Amino acid sequence: MSLSLQDISLTVGGQHHLRDIALTLERGTVNVLLGPTRSGKTSLMRVMAGLDPTTTGRIIADGRDVTGQPVKKRSVAMVYQQFINYPALTVYENIASPLRVRGAPRAEIDRRVRAAAALLKLDNQLEKTPLKLSGGQQQRCAIARAVVRQADLVLLDEPLANLDYKLREELREELPRIFAETNAIFVYATTEPTEALMLGGNTACLAEGRLLQFGPAARVYRRPDSLEAAQTFSDPPMNIAEVTKRGRELVLPGGGAIAADGALAALGDGPYRLGVRAHHLELAPRPGSLRVPGTVDVTEITGSESYIHVHAGPLRWVALVAGVHELEPGSPIAVHVDPARLFVFDPEGRVVITPGSTAAHAPQRARG
Amino acid sequence: MARIELVDLAHAYWTHARPAEYALKPMTTTWRQGGAYALLGPSGCGKTTLLNIISGLVTPSQGQVLFDGVDVTNLPTERRNIAQVFQFPVVYDTMTVFENLAFPLRNRGLDSRAVDARVREIAGLLDLTPDLNRRARGLGADAKQKISLGRGLVRPDVAAVLFDEPLTVIDPALKWELRSKLKALHRALDVTMIYVTHDQTEALTFADTVVLMHDGGIVQAGRPDELYDRPRHTFVGHFIGSPGMNVLPAAVDGLVARVGDARISLARPYAPPKAGSKVEIGIRPDHLRLAASGGHAAKLERIEDLGRVRYARLLFEGHRLSALVPEGEPPPTGPEVRLAFDAARIHVYADNLLVGEP
Amino acid sequence: MTKTVDNRAWFLVLPVFALVAFNAILPLMTVVNYSFQDSFGNNQFFWNGIGWYQELLDPTSELGGRFFAALGRSAAFSLAILAIEVPLGILVALCMPRSGTQLAIGLVIMALPLLVPWNVVGTIWLLYTRSDIGLFGWLINAVGIDFNATRNAAQAWIVLIAMDVWHWTSLVALLCFAGLKSIPDAYYQAARIDGASRLAIFRYIELPKLGRVLMIGVLLRFMDSFMIYTEPFVVTGGGPGNSTTVLSIDLVKIALGQFDLGKAAAMSIVYTLIVLTVCWVFYTVLVTRDSQEAQP
User: Fold this and answer.
1) pTM for the full model?
2) DSSP string spanning A203-224?
3) φ, ψ at A182 (rounded to 5°)
């Protein structure tokens, strides 16, 4: 099955929850909705499920218009942030419940429940009630229940948000395998860029109810269409500088200037916004790298790496560098970036250059 | 400002509990004045119990809590001069931001000029100055969390500020801002801070000392890089780092560790461990590399692309491993790959404990 | 969140419409009809236009004077019981045990007065306060205070108010208790850490969180007490004199005592409009409050 959203908008009480969203999802794919709280992830899921009507737009499933069709007529399963199970039923009965509702034969129920339980490593917990399980296992149970009915569309709304970091990591690693075993359309909402990357599949970046960009996760991460998409898909946040290209130089907001070499040289004069990912900033200069002098605000150690918060004039940047660097706040520092690693956006936030792209076609896009 | 000492402290939630049932196993430790500590561990490891004992919400079954040498074990919360920031922001809805921040000071009878000066100082540190006259009710979660933090910090006599997973309800991008703000505040105010979390990134970036807890006990306490570089327990290796340390059952003799049929060379000789103990080697994904030639044979299962880095998930002698593939390096091809171990970074564990730790 | 819209659902409401039409709208129309007519017994009716309404709203007329006096008594009664029941209810809720058997016992005791039928409440208090055989009346007399609610207007009022407080404070208390239970522990912990006094905790944490249930409690109690009939009818019958003749009692006196159906009908309509207006005001306040709170 494929699910196609055509120019979906949702307005509730004068507030735009979704604006003109066009998106086609194919069977057997994982699709991550990535965006901050209130960006429209949950609204979009509810529209897909048929829980909410749309203000405008159509929903096409396998070529059939299902706009306005109620949820119970669609083949949809949903998993929420909270661990929602039937507290009085055993794990077995919880997983079996969607099949029982449909009156599947006993033997088939047993076979499918055991398969789903094995997939989610719940084989040894089948006789327990959910509240006797750890949080991770409770959510496994909820996911098993969503998977067992072989719905065409499985929606997961921040399913790992209430779990411990390490449990999250564990389940996140297993999810792609679970998804691969069931031939449904998976839609997974999250606020965390890393999660989108780990799950692979496609990512749809959302902001304020708009779809910014949709495509394979790694591609959206490396080639964002816009500054907004790049910011949504960056953790730590992308470092931004408003610069002006003047001749052979890029003038920084603090008044300093850096040489516009390589791909940057092809840019026309005028204002731009530079974007640098934190891990592309380095402490040691390399041949040809740009130097941005500044002052240390604070350093954070992650064990093997350090986040160095730097300010240079009005810029507030974060550099992620290898090794442990305990730098005194207020001390001078210079961060360096390879110009080939820079993202360049025009003043409206449209991308002009992404790292690795050829600059040849870029200036026209900036003008257009 | 205070030095916090825990002396033979333990806690069980019911009387006559067996040692295994203790929520907190006996521990003695000292946390210095002005330190930034993180209590890190999975749910149920006892970190919240420990925090509640320090804040005075729970009275321990045994042992003492000392603030600057004074026994406060039986003192109620309000007499301990501590401040606490909870998981969900706690603000007084009907008050303005200013009144919220002034509340602890006014309760203690400070005169209005002193209150005003102190509130403005703290509001300045927290970037709350523009909001001072707004009602707290209408603010976002991050601003509310700053207010709860500010109410703790505003008291000049505060002995310690306790944080109970304070960033749970904050969006990732704002987490960054608040976290570095906390760190800057810690430097500016020289106050002991204790931060409870299950999130290693929060713990490692915030704290100068990370206290890793497991099963009601402290497994290791140290600087973030110590925990990362020299995990004293396999649990530390697993819990710190993402993905965690690779731990493989091995036979170790002299300069060689045998994992299945593979013979991995070690940087220094180890005496054969005593019979019957479980021997393992641990190595972080960052110290494993896929090599063009040499090294050991392994099978590539898949590549996980996290944008900034990629991890190769491998099958090596029947065990699953992760290895780092740095950005810029070409992704490995084919299922048959060669795996190189950085000998200096291999740790040897006997019964889960690091061998050769002085 | 929006919900699925399916207009067929309106059909499900039809039976209710029919029922309401039959037992509310039709009788109400009869009343509206009566309010524009005068009757001289024998089911003879004459058109009187808005005559009754003019008279009713003119305090100098006989009917108007009577109406405003009764309205004043009703309003005074409602204000008096609200002024006592709301603070008392909050106080009781604050003193309730938070859990365990004590809580269960407390809840049962609190629920008891609410289960007693209205007229029984009236009878209980009538007997209880009688100066000859009632325990309370006799005791008060025994300490040397002349007490007789059937003769002394002030004392009749005291009995009515005491009765209502006894009957309904539990309701306010239970509402407040539910409101208090929903406040997370972290708020109390934070307040202790901030060094807040008990009074400050009440003022800045409990009272703001109680706002909503209190509004509902006040609304319920206002409506109920403003329309109270059975209990004063049983206890004082509106006397001594007219001193406890609240609107509902006066209405019945006019309608059934004097059989002035036209006057009574007009009075009923005005009475209903007053109640509806107050309801609407409360509703509007509640809704605006909620929408303010919903803002991020």
Assistant:
1) 0.82
2) EEEEETTEEEEEEEHHHHHHS-
3) -115, 130
Which of C182, C187, C194 would you mutate first to test chain B, the one with the most B CBs within 10 A? C194
Instruction: Judge whether residue B10 has pLDDT over 80.
Output: yes
> What pLDDT digit, counting tens, does each position of B204-243 carry?
999 999 999 998 999 999 999 999 999 999 999 999 988 8
Tell me, yes or no, whether C62 lies in a domain.
no
| Helix or strand holding residue B82 (H, E) | strand B82-85
Q: Give the DSSP letter of residue B129.
A: G
Q: How many residues does chain A have?
A: 368
Q: Residue C5 falls within a domain, yes or no?
A: no
A340-351 as b/e, with b when 16 or more CB fall inside 10 Å? bbbbbbbeebeb
* Ramachandran angles phi, psi of B68, nearest 5°: 50, 40
User: Phi and psi at residue B60, in whole multiples of 5°?
Assistant: -70, 155
- Residue C13, in any domain of the structure: no
Helix, strand or coil, per DSSP, at residue C1: coil
CA gap B319, B288 in Å, rounded:
14
Q: Greatest CA separation found in chain C?
A: 77
As a whole number, the mean pLDDT across chain C is 84
Contact B201 A302 (CB under 8 A): yes
Along the 368 residues of chain A, how does pLDDT read in single tens digits? Answer: 788 999 999 988 788 889 999 999 998 899 999 998 889 999 999 999 888 888 899 899 888 888 888 787 888 899 999 899 999 999 999 999 999 988 889 999 999 999 999 988 898 889 999 988 888 899 999 999 999 988 889 999 999 988 888 888 888 888 888 888 888 899 999 999 989 998 889 999 999 999 999 999 989 999 999 999 999 998 888 999 999 988 888 888 777 787 887 778 888 888 999 999 999 999 998 888 888 889 998 898 888 889 999 988 888 899 999 888 888 888 999 999 888 888 999 999 999 988 875 443 333 333 33
Which subunits sit against C, judged by 3+ Cβ pairs under 8 A? A, B
Other chains touching A, judged by 3 or more CB pairs under 8 Å: B, C
> Across the strands, what pairs with B312?
B303, B323
How far, in Å, are A124, A270, B311 from residue A127 at the CA level? 8, 68, 37
Closest to C126 in 3D by CA, of C279, C256, C282, C234 = C234
Contacts with C101 (C-beta within 8 Å, 6 or more apart), sequence order? none
B243 prior amide bond cis, ω within 30 = yes
* Planar angle of CA B17, B21, B26, nearest 5 degrees: 90
- B331 vs C218 pLDDT, higher one: C218
Q: Which two tokens stand for residue C169?
A: 């404070």
The domain of C117 spans 70-294
Residue B333 pLDDT more than 80? no
Cα separation of C122 and C108, whole Å?
Answer: 21
pLDDT exceeds cutoff 70 at C1: no
Has residue C47 been placed in a domain? no
Q: What is the pLDDT of residues C88-105, one digit of tens each?
A: 999 999 988 877 888 889
Contacts of C5 in chain A (CB under 8 A): 53
* Chain B hits for A134, Cβ within 8 Å: 43-44
Q: What is the Cα–Cα distance from C268 to C264, expressed in whole angstroms?
A: 6
Pairing relation of β-strands A153-157 and A76-79? parallel
For residue A96, with 0-12 CB atoms within 10 Å meaning exposed, 13-18 middle and 19 or more buried, which class applies?
buried
CATH code at position C126: 1.10.3720.10
Residue A180, token pair as written in the block? 């691969």
Main-chain phi, psi angles of C40, to 5 degrees = -120, 35
Burial of C15 (0-12, 13-18, 19+ CB in 10 A): exposed
Q: Where does residue B274 fall: left (phi above 0), alpha (psi -120 to 50 degrees), or beta otherwise?
A: beta
The number of folded domains in chain C is 1
**Chain C contact present for B78, CB below 8 A:** yes
Please report, as a single letter, which amino acid is at residue A73: K
